[in-house]
Amino acid sequence: MKGPQTDCGPCRWQIMDMVAAMVRGPGTALKTPTRASLLFMGLLITGLTQSRIPASVPRGFWALPENLTVVEGATVELKCGVSAPGSVVQWAKDGLLLGPNPGIPGFPRYHMEGDPARGEFHLHIEACDLSDDAEYECQVGRSETGPELVSPRVSLSILVPPKVLQLTPEAGTTVTWVAGQEYMVSCISGDAKPASDITFLQSGQAVPSISVDVSEGSQEKLFITEAKVSVTPQSSDNGQLLVCVGSSPALVSPIKASITMNVLWQNLELPCTARGGNPPATLQWLKNGQPVPIAWGTEHVHATARSVLTMTVRPEDHGAQISCEAYNSVSAGTQERSITLQVTFPPSAITILGSVSQSENKNVTLCCLTKSSRPKVLLRWWLGGRQLQPTEETVMDGLHGGQISMSNLTLLMRREDNGLTLTCEAFSEAFTKETFKKSLTLNVKYPAQKLWIEGPQEGQHFRTGTRVRLVCLAIGGNPDPSLIWFKDARTVMEPRPPQEPRRVQLGNLEKSGSTFSRELVLVLGPPDNKAKFSCKAGQLSASTQIVVLFPPTNLTILANTSALRPGDALNLTCVSVSSNPPVNLSWDKEGKKLEDVAAPPQSAPFKGSAASRSVFLRVSSRDHGHRVTCRAHSAELRETVSSSYRINVLYPPEFLGEQVLMVTAVEQGEALLPVSVSANPVPEAFNWTFRGYRLSPAGGPRHRILSNGALQLWNVTRSDDGLYQLHCQNSEGTAEALVRLSVHYAPTIRALQDPTEVDVGGSVDIVCTADANPILPNMFNWEKLEEDEEDQSLDDMEKMSKGSTGRLRIRHATLVQAGAYQCIVDNGVAPPARGLVRLVVRFAPQVEHPAPLTKVAAAGDSTSSATLHCRARGVPNIVFTWTKNGVPLDLQDPRYTEHTYHQGGVHSSLLTIANVSAAQDYALFTCTATNSLGSDHTNIQLVSISRPDPPLGLKVVSLTPHSVGLEWKHGFDGGLPQKFHIRYEALETPGFLYVDVLPPQATTFTLTGLQPSTRYRVWLLASNAMGDSGLTDKQIQLSITTPGLDQPSGEPYDQLPTEQPGEPPGLPLLPVMCAVGGLLLLSNISCVGGFLWWRRLRHLTEGISEKSEAGLEEDRVRNEYEESQWTGDQDTRSSTVSTTETEPHLHPLRDFRPQLPPTLEEMAYTRGLEEEDVAFPGHLYDEVERVYGPPGAWGPLYDEVQMGPYDVCWPGDKYNDPGRIYDQVAGDWGTMASDSLPFELRGDLV
C-alpha cells in the first residue's frame, strides 16, 4: 500500500475494537467461528486503510449517513465523507466492526465505494435482505492529528413484501351460498415487514367490520396478518367475486386472491311500467285473478307509473298466471299484461323403504321413492363405490305438475358388505349443480370367530392387593358380541356403593377394527384365591385361575376375663382366621417375648390356612394399660400382622415418680400445684389441705381445684408459702402426698445507713440489708451516680454479700469516691429494689490559691470599696479568719464586712473593705480556713490602680512561611481594661512594625505578612489607661525564623483575623506632649470633675447595695450540709478581684459580681438524681451534695463570681465562662480616652 507507513496507534485501536465487537456475543452479525476467522484473515491480509487528505485539513465529517428505508432486494448506499488524514475508517453494524478493507470480507454483498484519497468511504449494500436491517455508523480511528470520530447512528430499515395470500374458502374456486345467510371468510398474509394491511371487496364494494390479528412471523422482525370477515351474499352477488386485497409499503401494487360466489335465491321480481295518460295510470297486480296488494309510483313529468312485484316462488306456483292491470279515471277499459310461471323445483325429499339389517347370506328388498319434482329425476343405487342395478323403476305423476320417481332393489347380504353405505341418488340435467341423496348403512349380522383371555398365566401366585388386568378378546361378529365376565359361575359386577374401595373394575366393550375386548381389573384379595374367572360371548367361552397370597384376614385375641386386679391370672388366645400360606404366631408384652402354647386348629375360609396359640399372665398395677401383642408372621410374604390386647387392672391411686413436690411462684402471680397420680378407675375426689384447713373443692376467691386434681392459686402472697397436703381417692382405695409452695417476691431494702461518713484515707462499709425470696448470692449490685463515666467506676471498691446483706467496702477513701451511691437488689423478681446512700468523705480545708499571690486593685482615696474573695473546700464546715499583715483583722470595725457562704463542701468568705485608704489598707491580707481536720490559708494583696503587668506565657503555636500563631495569658490588668499590642522586627531589616490585637481581649493572634526564611523578633505588650507593661520582661519577647517555601509548616489553629501591618508609628514623645497639653487645658475644671465623679460613685454605691441585698436573698443556694450557714451584713461595697488560672491575672473592676451558684458537677449530679426518679429514704444529702471536684475540675478560683460595672449585685440566672471576662471589658472600655478618667484615678497614688 502506497503512502506513509501506517501508524501503530490506529492499528491497535482497530484491532482492540474488532476484538471487543467479536466478544459482544448475541446480536452481532458474526456469530460463527468460521465468519470470525474469515474477518480476521481479511484484516491481516488487507492491512489498514489510510486517507491521504492533507494534514492541514481539520478532522471531521463532511458527509454523514442518513436513515434509509428500502424494499427487500434493492441496492443501498450509506454516505460517509471524512476529513481525517492518516486515520483508519471503517463501518460498524449494530456495534460489530466490519473492518477497514474496502471488500469487507465475510460480507459478500457489502463493500466500500469512493475515493479514499478524497475521504470517501460509502457503504454499498446489494440485494438487501432482512439481515441488513440494523443500525450503522462510520468510525474514524485516532491518529496523530486527533482522536477517533464516530458518526451518528443511522437505521437501515428493510421492507419485506407479503408473497402470497391464503384465502379460506380456497382461492380460485366457486362457492355456492344461499342468499341472506351469513358466511365466515378468512385471509392470511404470509411473512411481511411491516404487517400487511388486508381488505375485502364483495362485488367491488369494500366489506366493513374486518377482524385483524397480527402475530410474529417465521423470523425476527417479520409479521403474519390474519383477517376475518362475515359475508352475507345477496342475489345480486351471483357470479360476482369476493376479493381479499393485501397491501404493504413494500408492494408496488396490492396482491389479491378471490373466490366466485354462486348465490341461490327464491325471490322473483317482476316490474310493470305504464307510460302516458293523464292522470298517470293506476297499477294493480293479480295472481290467478286474485289482487295482490303492491304499491306503485308515478312520475308526472314523463307521465309514467311503475310497480315491482316481489314474490317468493314455491312449487305450488307452477302454472300460476301473474297479471298487471293499468287504468286511470278517463280510460274506457283496463290494459293488462300477463305471464304464466313455469317453476322448476327439485324433489323435497328422498326416502328408502325397507330394512338394511339382516343375517349374512340373506336377501333384502329396498325401495327408493322421491317427492314430486319438475322435471322428473332419475334414480341410481350405490353400495360403497359400486353402482347397483335396480330390479324395477317407476315414474308417477306428482303434485304441482311434477313427477315422482321410484326404484326397487334386491340385495344379497354378505359379511364383507357390513358397514358399507347404501345410497339412492336422484339427478337431473335441470339440477346440474345440485345432487339429492339418501343413504343407509348395511348391518350384516354374523357371529364372532374366536374368543380368548389375555392376562397372567393360569395358577400364577400374586400377593394380596396386587392389581391384575384380565382382557377378554373376540374377533368378528355383528352385532358386536357382548363379552360377559363370570367368577365361579357368578356374573362379575362392580361393587356398590361406589364410595367403597373399588376392588373390581369392569371395563366397557371396546372395538378396534373387527376385534372386540372387555377388560376386568382386579385388586386381588383373599376371596380371589383360586377362583375361576370366565368370559363368554354367545356360545364361545374362555377361563383362567389365580392364586392369591394373603396374610391373616382376621387376627383375634380372646380373653378369659375382663375385670382384673393385682395378682389375678389372665389367659389370652390368638386366632388367625385364614391366610395363604400358613403363618407363625408369637406373643410379646411391651416388646418382651412371652412363652405360649398351641391351641386346637380350626377351618379356614378363602381356601387358606388357620392357626391359634395361647399365653398365660399374672398381672399387677404396673401392667395396667400395657399391650399384649400377638404377631402373625409369613416368611414367604415377608409380612407380619399384629393384634393387641390392652390390660385393664383396677387398683387404688398411686403417685408417680414425676410427681412435683416443690413449686415456685411469684408474688401476685399464679401458682399451679400439679398432680401426677395413677389410678384405675380415675380418682373420684382430690382434697387439698393447707395448715390444717381443707380447701373448698368448689373453689374460692384465690384458688380452684382443676379436673385433673391440680390446685391453681392466683394473687399469690408470701403468706401462701408452705406445705400443701393432697388426698386422692377412688373405688379401690386412697393415697396422700405433700407439695411445697415457695413464693418468690421482689426485694425491698430494709436498712441502708445514709449518710455514711469516712475520713480521707480511712475505710468504711456501706451496708445494704434487703428482704427477698429467693436470696441469691449475687443479687446485690452497686452504682455510683455520676454523669462522667470515669467517675462511675467501682474498680477500687470491694463488693460483698452474705444472705440478705450486701456491703460495698471502701479502703483508703479518697475525695473522688465521695458522692451518691445506689444499692440495687435484684433476685430475678421484678422490680429490683434501689436505695440511695451518700458517702461523705471528711477532709481538711483546701483553700483555692492557684498562685502564690492574688492582687486586688482599688483607689486609695477613701471613697472606694474593695472586696476580697476567699474560697475553700472541706468537710465538715469551715470557719474563716482574716489577718492584715499578719495581724488578726477586727471585723467589728465598720469598714470591714464579711459574708460567709456554704454550699455543700464549697465555702466562701467575702471581705468587703469600705473607704479604702492607701495608707491603711494597701497591705497583705491572709484568709485562713479551719475545720476539725485542719486548716489552710491564702494571701491577697490590696494594691493601687496602675499599669498592667506584662502578659504571661507567650509562645508560638503555629508557624508558616508567611505567618506565625501566638498564644499567651493575661497578666494583672492594673484594675483597668487592658489591650495587647505586638511589636516585631526582621533582624536583617532596620525598624519595627506594630500590630494591635483584635479583639482586644483575645489571647491568641496570628501575625501575617512575614517573609519566608527570615529571622524575626517579636514583643507582646499590655496597656491600659495608665500606660503599658514595658519591654523589659523577657517573657514577652520571642525570636523566630520562618520556614522556607519548600519546608513543611505547622497548621495554625483558632486563627483570628489580623490587621495588615501599618507604617511604624511616630515618635513616642508626640502622644506624651499631647497628653500634657490636655492636662493643662483641663486644670481649671479638675475640681469640678472630681466632685462630679465622687457623686457618681456615691449614687452607684447606694444602688449597688440595694441590688446586692435583693440578689443575695433571691439567688442564695440551698445549704445541704446540716451545719452550713451564711452570715454577713447586707451592705457590700464593690472592688476589683484578681485571680489566676495557672499564673497571676486579674479581673477588671467593672466585672466583679459575687455569685456562688452550684458548680457544673453539682448541677449535673442533681439532674442525674432527678432523672433516675429514685426516692430517698430521708432528706437527700442534707449535709453535702458535692464536697469535691474531680482532678482538673476546680477551674479558676472565682469562676462563678463575676462583677458588672460598679455593680455588686448577684446575678440570678446568668453564669459566664471566666475566659470571656475580657470580651466584656474590651467591648465596653475600648473607646474610653485616657483623659476621661477622674483625676484621682490617674497615675499611682502610692
Automatic annotation (TrEMBL):
GO biological process: cell adhesion; muscle organ development
Record region (Disordered): 1041-1064, 1108-1154
Limits of the Ig-like domain: 54-155, 249-340, 347-441, 447-547, 551-642, 747-828, 845-946
InterPro entries recorded: CD80_C2-set, Cell_adhesion_signaling, FN3_dom, FN3_sf, Ig-like_dom, Ig-like_dom_sf, Ig-like_fold, Ig_I-set
Protein's membrane topology: Single-pass type I membrane protein
Domain Fibronectin type-III: 950-1045
PROSITE patterns tied to this protein: FN3 (PS50853), IG_LIKE (PS50835)
Keywords, ordered alphabetically: Cell adhesion, Cell membrane, Developmental protein, Disulfide bond, Glycoprotein, Immunoglobulin domain, Membrane, Myogenesis, Phosphoprotein, Repeat, Signal, Transmembrane, Transmembrane helix
Compartments in which it is found: Cell membrane
Protein family (similarity comment): Belongs to the immunoglobulin superfamily.
PANTHER family in the cross-refs: NEPHRIN
Protein name (database record): Nephrin
